[in-house]
Amino acid sequence: MLVMNTEPASKPALKAVNDAPRPSKEEAMEAVRTLIAWAGDNPDREGLKDTPKRVVQAYREWFRGYDMDPAEELSRVFEDVSGYDDMVILREIDIESHCEHHIAPFLGKAYVAYLPTEKVVGISKLVKVVEVFSKRLQTQETMTAQIADAIDEALKPRGTAIMVDAVHQCMTTRGVHHPDVSTITTQFTGEFKTNPSLQDRFLKLIGKS
Ligand SMILES: Nc1nc2c(ncn2[C@@H]2O[C@H](COP(=O)(O)OP(=O)(O)OP(=O)(O)O)[C@@H](O)[C@H]2O)c(=O)[nH]1
Ligand SMILES: [Zn+2]
Fold first, then answer.
1. Model-level pTM?
2. Which residue's alpha carbon is at the smallest distance from atom 5 of ligand 1?
3. Where exactly are the structural domains of the chain?
4. Per residue in 14-31, pLDDT tens?
5. Would you please indicate which residues are annotated as catalytic (active-site) residues?
6. What sections of the chain are H helices per DSSP?
7. Ligand 1, pocket residues at CB < 6 Å
8. What's the CATH code, domain 78-205?
9. At what angle do helices 123-134 and 140-155 cross, to 10 degrees?
10. What is the CA radius of gyration of the chain?
11. ipTM of the complex
12. Is 189 helix (H, G, I), strand (E, B) or coil?
């Protein structure tokens, strides 16, 4: 039977990404009106009247990671795993993120593995950690490293392996216009970093070798 730490660690302080106060919703909607005018349209016409309201609401969804704390998501652990010490892998976690260079979506899959020591975490919490960082503005490289860091920090595993495979709309719908290019990033820590055969097993188990 799994024994669960019923008392999650007290809520850690959110690491502020930006200390400046947020603009008001009205200011954000005004900025959207400016962008509509910049695109060449009339923000006052009927079809666009409610668009600023919808866009600022969509921003709350797309960037909800700023209001989430990865340490909190990973704070509840299970300590009795009957000696299980092999890798735990989550495959094909959907990524819907935005690049910090163009605020354009990048879409793909994340693969997350760690080698537990004496504690494991609820598997849905690993999906949450991916969500925290994907729902912020960053590069794919930063996001990949941040996911690994958060797991290392919270679980102190023997190692972590992350792969992200994503298509960037800033490359498909504009710029170089290459719809079939996907970008793969990996981050290995601990035993995954020092042991290439563990990397190989990870890649094989996620179907990428
Ligand atoms: N390394 C990295 N680059 C990214 C990511 N998302 C977008 N980019 C790139 O960021 C770069 C920004 O380049 P800039 O020359 O400053 O901007 P740009 O003129 O809009 O570039 P183009 O996209 O080439 O038109 C581009 O090469 C993008 O492909 C990411 O997650 N990681
Ligand atoms: Zn981009």
1. 0.91
2. 139
3. 25-62, 78-205
4. 455 778 889 999 999 999
5. 99-102, 140, 168, 170
6. 25-39, 51-62, 70-73, 123-134, 140-155, 169-172, 190-194, 196-205
7. 99, 101, 139-141, 168, 170-171, 175-176
8. 3.30.1130.10
9. 140
10. 20
11. 0.94
12. strand
